[in-house]
Amino acid sequence: MNIRNKGNGIFKRLIERYDTKLDKNGICGKRIAERLHTLSQIGLTADNGSNRPGYSEDEARAQELVSSWMKEAGMEVRRDGAGNLIGRLAGKRNFLPAIMSGSHVDTVPNGGHFDGTLGVITALEVVEAWKHEKYQPVHPLEIVVFADEEGSRFNGGLNGSEGMIGGRDIEAKKQLIDRDGYSFSEVLQQRDLSIDSYKNATRDMEEVALFIEVHIEQGKRLEKENLPCGIVTGIAGPCWLEITFYGEAGHAGNTPMNDRKDALVAASEFISKVNQLPGNINDTAVATIGKQLVEPNGVNVIPGKVTLYVDIRDIYEQTRDQLVEKVKHLAETIANDQQLKVAVTEKTKVKPVPIKKEMQDLLARSIKEQGIQPFYLPSGAGHDAMIIGEKVPIAMLFVRSENGISHNPQEWTNLADCVQAALVLKSFIEDLQTDWEDDNLS
Questions:
Q1: 246 within 8 A of 431, measured Cβ to Cβ
Q2: What secondary structure does DSSP assign to 137-170, as a single string?
Q3: Residue 332's CB: how many other CB atoms inside 10 A?
Q4: What is the DSSP string of 204-218?
Q5: Where are the coiled-coil regions (predicted)?
Q6: pLDDT for position 438
Q7: 40 φ, ψ to 5°?
Q8: CB-facing half-sphere around the CA of 247: CA atoms within 13 A
Q9: What confidence score (pLDDT) does residue 165 get?
Q10: In whole angstroms, how far apart are CA 432 and each of 8, 193, 210, 426?
Q11: What is the overall mean pLDDT for the chain?
Q12: Closest Cα to residue 241, out of 313, 343, 310?
């Protein structure tokens, strides 16, 4: 296929300003660009975005393409019962726990071409570089393409990584229904999987030494610092609160201002004050109100009931929970002051995953080796690393996102930054094994 002649592809834009002097240590920018482009053609939308839902035919096609690249690079390839694609490169001491890297290739509807995909391509590029250099790692390396990370199909993702570590509520997953009316079980069957295969996909994570994920930042911190990549300090765990203010609906014209119980006025005060709370906790905590329902929702009716949803996140569980309690207390205080009732319900609560300083320090060393100033930042979004991190040590490298845009056809990361990330990943894995080897000899 002549990649360069693809008019609707991303290859030309990736390569046109790329300086090939950045190619070194076996890492090839053109190969990264070609592979990002080729994957972008699977599930391509009219807006030049990407649409590869989890457990869809297009996700399967993308995994199959990556599988072919893995085999060409000399990896043994298999797929587990949760739909995860796993490529394994034998190590000199193949009995040792594997170093694992990767991400996902499913997307949100009309999403971008770098989210998840870049983590898969950079991990594979490390193996290609080793092939060029005739280098064999001491520990085996596994590249994983996790299934259904985004969750666009069932409004809840990370199903592939959850299947790998096990321990999840299978009965709850059986109740999942996609927008076409297919159950989780039926969707698995479409991919030659089953509930039983999903349950049996649970892996002995003692076989894995650590997991490192490369991912686009999906924010603007690195861009503001003018840095190609940065070190993730932790992955925030969300807590979602449903808060309902109960007032009294009434006629907008005949009810005096001093005789109202307006639920929307209470909710408005709450929204304004919630925005001020995270800064009193720490600089990694955030709170967002992105959904609100007003009843009866009439132009000439005083709102009698307002339900809103608060998304609270932090990379530290203790401070996240402190913020949750402050938000609850604020809702109760406002309701009391305005003589309303309020109901607060926790809808979901996921543990944050702080990344060990040891892993951050090792990644910082690899970044310095590439002449980059280490920069530390939290991940507000969830990732497969968050799930795998429940069982094994993790590290995470963010790569600069242009204008912070993600989950959008305009999502973009320059090829030079992609290459820098691949070089850092390669250095990290090689240095890590050298350190382990020295520890064993000392």
A1: no
A2: -SS-EEEEEESS-S-TTTT---HHHHHHH--S-H
A3: 14
A4: -GGGEEEEEEEEE-S
A5: none
A6: 65
A7: -65, -20
A8: 25
A9: 96
A10: 40, 36, 10, 10
A11: 94
A12: 310
Q: What pLDDT score does 383 carry?
A: 92
What's the pLDDT score for residue 348?
81
Residue 397's alpha-carbon distances to 1, 230, 301, 345, 423, in angstroms, are 32, 6, 51, 35, 12
Neighbours of 162 (CB within 10 A): 25
CA–CA dist 234, 284 (Å, integer): 10
Per-residue model confidence as pLDDT tens digits over 72-98: 999 999 999 999 999 999 999 999 999
- Beta-bridge mates of residue 250: 302
pLDDT at 337 over 80: yes
Q: Which residues are annotated as a binding site for Zn(2+)?
A: 104, 115, 150, 215, 407
CA distance 324 to 310: 9
Binding-site sequence positions: 104, 115, 150, 215, 407
In one-letter notation, the amino acid at residue 207 is: E
First to last CA, the chain: 52
Q: What is the pLDDT of residues 105-145, one digit of tens each?
A: 999 999 999 999 999 999 999 999 999 999 999 999 999 99
Helices 29-40, 57-72: inter-axial angle, 10-degree rounding: 150
Q: CATH 3.40.630.10 in the chain, residues?
A: 3-236+352-441
Cβ-contact 436, 38 below 8 angstroms: no
Higher per-residue confidence, 140 vs 156: 140
Quick one: average pLDDT of 242-246?
97
Per 3-state DSSP, the chain is made up of helix, strand and coil in percentages (nearest 5) of: 40, 25, 40
**pLDDT digit string, tens, across residues 215-241:** 999 999 999 999 999 999 999 988 999
Cα dist from 287 to 1, 162, 279, 327, whole Å: 47, 26, 10, 9
pLDDT of residue 334 exceeding 80, the answer is: yes
Please identify which residue in the block is written with the tokens 């799930």.
Answer: 387
CA distances from 197 to 128, 188, 192, 202 (A): 31, 9, 9, 9
pLDDT in tens, 7-36: 458 999 999 999 999 999 999 999 999 999
Q: Which helix (H) or strand (E) holds 122?
A: helix 117-133
Residue 329 clears pLDDT 70, i.e. is over it = yes
* Domain 3-236+352-441: top CATH class: alpha beta
Are 266 and 334 in contact by the 8 Å Cβ rule? The answer is yes
Domain with CATH 3.30.70.360 in the chain: 238-349
